Q: What sequence folds into this?
């Protein structure tokens, strides 16, 4: 019998990115909106804490194993900002901000810095729990290194993808084809790490 799990996100972009990776390894993955509506407050102090909160919440709501991620952009010159606040960087404590607002704030914060001081990375933590009280969750960590451009590229990116330059690909993240992104991104690395651990446990059945 195929192992079913809940993907703990309401973000359609994450569903589109993560689900194919999970299905390709023989697992049955369903987004949480297939079971319930609502979300848990992401008030942890790290990507891992937030991912764990989301996974436990989805598992408690459904009674099924759950997998969740939390991710963001960390800029070296900004001492790791925007980090866990990536989605609401421009809003501060006011809540969500648009991608446009977040990127504009980032570019303003880094105005005048040469490329040697614009190093950054996308970071992701993925957590899988068998049940809501799982005392030994499976954890995967991924990083994707690059640098922040001085202006946008394609205008088609999600989040900070238009200004995150990957030197070895000679592209901004927004210009990387999805099939390549799903093999090498921070999120792909973290998801694959968890799937490898599940396979070591002998799943899917």
A:
């Amino acid at each position: 019998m195929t192992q079913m799990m809940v993907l703990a996100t309401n973000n359609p972009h994450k569903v589109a990115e993560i689900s194919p990776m999970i299905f390709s390894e023989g697992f049955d993955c369903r987004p949480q909106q297939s079971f319930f509506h609502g979300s848990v407050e992401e008030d942890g102090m790290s990507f891992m804490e937030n991912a764990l909160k989301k996974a436990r919440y989805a598992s408690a709501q459904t009674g099924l194993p759950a997998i969740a991620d939390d991710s963001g952009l960390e800029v070296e010159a900004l001492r790791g900002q925007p980090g866990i606040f990536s989605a609401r960087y421009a809003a501060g404590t006011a809540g969500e901000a648009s991608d446009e607002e977040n990127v504009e704030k980032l570019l303003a914060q880094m105005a005048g810095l040469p490329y040697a001081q614009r190093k950054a990375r996308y970071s992701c933590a993925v957590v899988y729990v068998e049940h809501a009280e799982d005392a030994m969750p499976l954890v995967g960590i991924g990083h994707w290194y690059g640098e922040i451009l001085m202006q946008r590229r394609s205008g088609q990116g999600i989040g900070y993808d238009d200004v995150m330059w990957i030197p070895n690909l000679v592209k901004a993240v927004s210009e990387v084809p999805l099939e390549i992104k799903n093999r090498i991104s921070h999120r792909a690395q973290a998801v694959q790490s968890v799937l490898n651990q599940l396979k070591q446990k002998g799943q899917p059945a």
Q: What stands out?
A: The mean pLDDT is 93. Helices lie at 12-24, 47-62, 99-109, 178-184, 186-200. Strands lie at 4-7, 28-31, 66-75, 119-129, 138-148, 164-166, 171-172.
